[in-house]
Amino acid sequence: MQYETRFCPHCATALAPMAQLEDSGEKVRLRCPSCGWTHWNNPTPVLAAIVEVDGKVLLARNAAWPPKMYALITGFMEAGESPQEGIAREIKEETNLDAEAISLVGAYEFLRMNQVIIAYHVHARGTVRLSAELLDYKMVALQDLKCWPAGTGYALADWLRTRGHVPVFFTPEENAERRRGLEERKDGS
Ligand SMILES: [Zn+2]
Fold first, then answer.
1. Helix, strand, or coil here: 52?
2. Can you give the pLDDT at residue 181?
3. What number of other Cβ atoms are within 10 A of residue 173's Cβ?
4. How remote is the CA of residue 17 from the centroid of ligand 1, in Å?
5. What is the CA(115)–ligand 1 centre distance, in A?
C-alpha cells in the first residue's frame, strides 16, 4: 500500500498546505504549522540491474506478478550504502549471484511512483537461487529481449543499443497482456 504523509514526523502536528518563499519563489507545500518542518516529497531512489550471465540477461518474475511479466532485478537503496553496493546486495539477495562488474546505464524517471530509477548493467556469476520474493526467472539472449515502456524498460533499451542491438519494444497489446492482472508495485519495476 502507499502511505500518505499527514503528520509532522518531528512533532506529530497535522501538516497543512502552507505557502513559503523558496529559491524558486513562493511555493505551497505540506508544512508543519507548529515546528516548520517541510514535506519536500523528493523522489525515492530505486536501483535496477540488467544482470548478464554468460552472455544472457536474467529477467525475473515477482511472486505478485502475472505469469507473463518478467523484469529486471530492482530494489530500494538502503541507508549507508553506495548505489553500486546496493545493487550488488539486491542481486545477491534476490538471485544469489555475485556481481563482478557494475556499470551505470542511466537514471530514469518513474513519476507515477515518485521514484527515480538508477539502472546498472552487471556482469554476474554463480548459481541462481531465487529469494522467496521471486517466483521464476529466465535467461534471455540479447536478440530475444523485448523492452517495455517504463523506466527499467527504457534502461534495457539504452543498454541494448550500446551492445549494437536495435531495441524491440512490446506492442501496446503485448504490453497490456504482459501486465494483465498486475497490482501496483512499490519499487518501480
Ligand atoms: Zn512539527
1. strand
2. 80
3. 8
4. 13
5. 25
**Grouped pLDDT means (10 residues each) for the chain, 189 residues:** 89 97 95 97 97 98 91 97 98 98 97 95 98 96 96 97 97 90 59
What's the rounded Cα separation, in Å, for the pair 100 and 88? 9
Grid coordinates standing for 105? 546505464
Task: Output phi, psi for 52, to 5 deg.
Answer: -110, 125
Confidence at residue 145, expressed as pLDDT on a 0 to 100 scale: 97
Q: How far is the CA of 31 from the centre of ligand 1 (A)?
A: 8
Give the Cα separation of 27 and 10 in Å (integer).
Answer: 21
CA distance 65 to 105: 25
Cα 33 to ligand 1 centre (Å):
7
Residue 156: Cβ within 10 Å count = 25
